[in-house]
Amino acid sequence: MKLEDMIMVSVDDHIVEPANMYKNHLPPEWQDKAPTMGVDDNGADYWVFDGKRTGAIGLNAVVGRPREEYGCEPVAFNQMRAGVYDIDGRIDDMNVNGIMSSINFPSVVGFDGYRFMQYDDRKVGLRMLQAYNDWHIDEWCAKYPGRNIPVGLVPYWMPEEAAREVERIGKKGVRTITMCDNPTFHGLPGIHNEIYKPLWKALADQNIVISNHIGSGSPAPHASMETPIEAWITTMPMAISNSAADWLHLQALRDYDLKVCLSEGGIGWIPYFLERADFAFEHHHAWTHSDFGGMKPSELFRKHFMTCFIDDAFGLQNIDAIGEDIISYECDYPHSDCLWPEAPERLYETVKHLTDAQIDKISHANALRFFDYDAIGILGGRDKCTVGALREAGKDVDISTRSFGGPAPLAPGEKPRRVTSGDIIGMFAGVTKADGELETA
Fold first, then answer.
1. E runs forming strands in 188-236
2. Is residue 150 classed exposed, middle or buried when 0-12, 13-18 and 19+ CB atoms within 10 A define those classes?
3. The total number of structural domains that make up the chain
4. Would you tell me the crossing angle of helices 270-288 and 297-304 to the nearest 10 degrees?
5. For residue 148, what is the DSSP state?
6. How far apart are CA 51 and CA 196, in angstroms?
7. How confident is the model at residue 429, as a pLDDT?
8. 3-class SS of residue 178
9. Are strands 52-53 and 99-105 parallel, antiparallel or unpaired?
10. CATH code assigned at 348
11. 278 in a domain, yes or no?
12. Predicted confidence (pLDDT) per residue in 337-377, tens digit
C-alpha cells in the first residue's frame, strides 16, 4: 500500500471550546446560568463556570508552534491555530494531515466533563452538560458529516441521569461517551458498585463505547516535583494500565457486553499486561475467586477493549501479541505529542511491514467497526477518504510554523535548566475565581 492510499481515523483528538458554544443551545430561561468567557488584564481568555474561573483555555494546544515553545501554554485564542477551536479550521487541518475522521475530546470541562460535577446545583450542572453535548453534536460534528465521530459527556456522578442522557444523545448519533476511568478520584463509588447499572444498561442498549482517556481519573504518577517533565511525559500513556486492569475485572463488562477504548494509552505495554493478567488469573484465582466467564483475561480483553497509539513502532512490530483487531490510530491534535501535519508519514513508516489488510485495520477499519460508524459511506466512498484525496483538498492550507515569542529570555550568565514536573504543575495549580478567591484547577 502506498502512503497516499491509506485511510486514517483518529480516535483521540481535542477541542478548545469556542466562546459561542452555548449561544444556540440553551432556552432564554437558562441563558443567565450559561458559562461565560472573559478577558483579563493580561489578555488571557478564560471561562467562568458556576462563578468559578477555569485555568488556561489552551491546555497544551501548541500545534503549529516551534517545538521550543511547546511548554508555553496558549492563553488566548489568537495564540492558537484556528483548527483548535473552529470547525472550519479543524477540517482544513485534518485535510492537510490526511485524517478522514476524528473523535474530539473536551478540554475546558475536563476530558470526562467533571467540570459539570462541580456545580453547586447539580441540576444546573446537568443542564449545562446537556447543552455542551448539543453544541458538540449539532454544530461541531454535524457541519461536516462523517468527519467527526460524536462523543458525549454523561453525568456519571448521577447514574440514573447518565442513563437518560445516554439514551438522548444516542438517538442524536453519539457513538461513544467519555468517562472517568476511576470515579473514586472524584470521591465517587468505584466502577464495581451497583449504582452504575443503569448507565451500563443504557450504553449496551445504544451500542455506545466507553472512552477512558488518560488523565481523566487515576493521575499519571511522577516521582517528585523535581522530576524532569520529560520523565513524566514518558510514562503518561502507560498510567492507564491500572484502570485497564480494573475495567478488565468489571463484571458488567460481560453482563452488558460493554466496549471500552483506552484513549491515548499506547500499545507497546499491552503484551506484558495481557501476559501478566493471564498469569495472575491462573496462579491466584483459586483464592481470589476471579471469574472471566470461561475465558482467559487476555481473551476477554481482546473481545471488549480497543487500544490506540500515536507513535508506537515497538507495538506495531508485535501486533500478534496484542491482536490486530484491537489496535487503532490516534493523532492527539492539537497537543504537543501530535505529529501534525506529518502523521501519515510517521504512521506509514511504522506499518509498512504489515499487509495491506492489517494496515487498513489499524489505520481506520478497527476504529470504524468498534465505534459502529460508517464514515466512508457517509463521505461517498474510499477514493474520497484517502490521505492523498484529503491532502489535495487541503493543498492551499497554510501549515507554516508560527512563533508566539517563546519562554522568557535567560538572564546574563544564566544557563538553561531542565523543566520539571513541579514547573508544569505550578503553571496550572492556581486559577482565579470570579470573586477573586484562589482555587485549585
1. 209-213
2. buried
3. 1
4. 130
5. B
6. 30
7. 57
8. strand
9. unpaired
10. 3.20.20.140
11. yes
12. 999 999 999 999 999 999 999 999 999 999 999 999 999 99
Helix (H) or strand (E) holding 197: helix 197-206
Supply the range of the domain harboring residue 118.
3-15+82-395
- Please give the pLDDT value at position 434: 34
Unique residue bearing C-alpha cell 463521505: 379
The SS3 assignment for 32 reads helix
Under DSSP, is residue 42 helix (H, G, I), strand (E, B) or coil? coil
3-state DSSP helix/strand/coil % of the chain, to nearest 5? 45, 15, 45
φ, ψ of residue 84 to 5 degrees: the values are -70, -35
In one-letter notation, the amino acid at residue 175 is R
CA distances from 424 to 53, 234, 236, 430 (A): 19, 15, 14, 11
How far, rounded to the nearest angstrom, does the alpha carbon of residue 240 sit from its chain's CA centroid?
A: 13
Distances (CA, A) of 411 to 156, 157, 339, 414, 416: 49, 49, 33, 5, 10
Has residue 95 been placed in a domain?
A: yes
Q: Dihedral through CA 371, CA 155, CA 165, CA 365, nearest 10?
A: 0
What local confidence, expressed as pLDDT, does residue 435 receive? 32
Q: What are 134's three cell numbers? A: 448539543
C-alpha cell at 89: 479550521
How distant, in Å, are the alpha carbons of 18, 78, 251 from that of 132?
11, 23, 31
Paired sense of beta strands 438-440 and 430-432, if any: antiparallel
Which residues does the chain have with pLDDT short of 50?
Answer: 430-441
Residue 243 grid coordinates: 484502570
Phi, psi at residue 115, to the nearest 5°?
-55, -35
In the chain, the amino acid numbered 405 is G
Residue 292, in any domain of the structure: yes
pLDDT digits (tens, 9 = 90+) for 19-48: 999 999 999 999 999 999 999 998 999 999
| Type of residue numbered 323 | G
In a domain, residue 28? The reply is: no
